[in-house]
Amino acid sequence: MGMFDKLRGKTDKNPKIEAVSRNSIKEWNDKGISLYNQGKYKEAIKYYDKSLKAEPNSAEVLNNKGNALRQLGKHKEALSFFDKSISINPQNSDPWINKGATYYDMELDKKAIECYDKALTLDPSNVMTLSNKGAALANSGDYINAIKSFDKALKINASDENTKINRSRLVEHVIISSAEKGYENFVNGNYSKSMKYYNEVLMVDPTNINALTTKGTLYFLENKYKDAINTFNKGLSINPDHSILWFNKGEVLENMGNNSEAIECFNKTINICASRNSTSQAEADVNVTNRDLIADAKQHIQHIKRL
C-alpha cells in the first residue's frame, strides 16, 4: 500500500506547477543578486532563503548567500555556505574564489592562497583569481610570487585596472622597503643580506640603476670582480651616461690590473661630469658632486700612471 502511495504521489505532480515553481526560484535568486549589487545584503539574503527553501541544494544560490554573509562580516557562516556549494558542485571555481576572499578578509592569507590555488586548477585563466592571489601573497610578504601572479593576470588581460594598480603599488613598496633594508645592511657590513634585498628590488624592477650600482659594489667588496663588471655593464646598457657606474667599473678594472681599460672608464667619468654643473650631484642616488668625482677620477689615473 505504501509503495502505491509513493507511485501515486509522483504521478500527481503537475508539470505546470513545477515550471512556475522553478521560475519563482530563479526570480528570487535574481532579486537577491539585484539587491546584493545595490549593497542591500540583508534583503538579498531574504530572497536567497526563499529560493533555498524551495531548492536547498542549489549550488549557485548557496554561493550567493555566502557572498552576502561575507559582506556582512559573518565570515564563518559564509564559509559554511561556500563549503555546501562546493560539496554539491566541486567543479565550480566561484565558491573557491569567494572562500579565498573570505579568508583574505579574515587576514588568513595562507588559507586564502590555498583556495585561490584550488580555483585556478579549475579555471587557470581567471584574471580575478590570479589578481586576488597576488594580493594575498603580497600580504603574506611573498612579494616576488605576488608580482608573478599579477603578471600572469595581466598577460591574460593587460587592461585589468585593479591588477595594474595593485601591481604598481606593490612594486613601489618593494623598491622603497627593500632598498632601505639593503642600504642599512650595506652600511652595517652585512653584505649578503644587503645583496638579498637589492636582488628583490631588481626582481620587480630590473632597470633600477641604484640597485644595480649597489649590487655591483657589493660584488666588488667581496672580490667578485667579474660579477661586479657584469652588473655595472647592465647598468650602463640602461644609462650609458651614468658617471658613478663608469667610475666604479674603473675601480674594479684597476684592482684587476686592467689599467688601460680602467683609465678609459675614469676618462669617461671625467667627460660626463665636465658637461654638467660642477657643484651639482654627479647622480641623483649619490652624495658626491661632479667636481669631486672628477677629482677622484683624476687621482686614480695619476696613480695608475705612476705604476
Description:
Keywords: Repeat, TPR repeat. TPR repeats lie at residues 25-58, 59-92, 93-126, 127-160, 209-242, 243-276. The protein has 307 residues and is mostly helical. The protein is built from 16 helices and no strands. It has helices spanning 2-11, 15-37, 41-54, 59-71, 75-88, 94-105, 109-122, 127-139, 143-156, 161-187, 191-204, 209-221, 225-238, 243-256, 259-274, 290-306. Helix 10 runs antiparallel to helix 11. The radius of gyration is 31 Å and the shape is rod-shaped.
What labels would you give this structure?
Serine Threonine Protein Phosphatase 5, Tetratricopeptide repeat; 307 residues; rod-shaped; 79% helix; mainly alpha
